[in-house]
């Protein structure tokens, strides 16, 4: 799993290339990589159920077209959920799901407190960490199937920070 400090929106660090230092124009990538936070229910669909209708989202991650973002709290929740009896995953299956996600996710370190923008409060406190990660990591999207998080998206209080959308809406934007 890669580790990153908070990068400017769009994911490009403030670096000067040799060409720029000689007065040439900066070389920019052809297309910006979409920075995405997935909540746990979507991760289960992507990394446990191989026949998921959301498989195209996983391909975006694995191809590098999208950059998945996580932190210790969100990754830890995914690990815990994989052990739930309802999924009937043995240790090998749990490790395989974690390893597949770990191979295509970037771990984000929290910014200094001075950079924090207030967020709306989730009814379910366990969902707040996904909002905070999306804000702190400069995500473009938070993809969730959670009704409370999707309800926040309709309130328009996150304009200018990131979008919350369901996996179906994310599929439509492919």
What does this structure look like?
The structure is a single chain. The chain is α/β, with parallel strands linked by helices. It has one domain (31-172): 3-Layer(aba) Sandwich (Rossmann fold). It is 39% helix and 13% strand. The chain contains eight helices and six strands. The chain has helices spanning 18-21, 40-47, 55-63, 72-82, 91-102, 128-136, 147-154, 167-172; strands spanning 2-4, 34-38, 66-70, 105-108, 141-143, 163-165. It has a six-stranded parallel β-sheet, with helices on both faces. β5, α7 (147-154) and β6 form a beta-alpha-beta unit. It starts with a strand and ends with a helix. Mean pLDDT is 81; it is low at 4-28.
Q: Strand count, sense and closure of the main sheet? A: 6 strands, parallel
Name of the CATH superfamily = 5'-nuclease
**Through-space gap between termini:** 24 Å
Overall number of strands: 6
- Strand arrangement in the largest pleated sheet: 1-4-3-2-5-6
From N to C, what is the helix and strand string? EHEHHEHHEHEHEH
In short:
The protein has 174 residues and is of the alpha/beta class. It is built from eight helices and six strands. Strands 1-4-3-2-5-6 form a six-stranded parallel beta sheet, with helices on both faces.
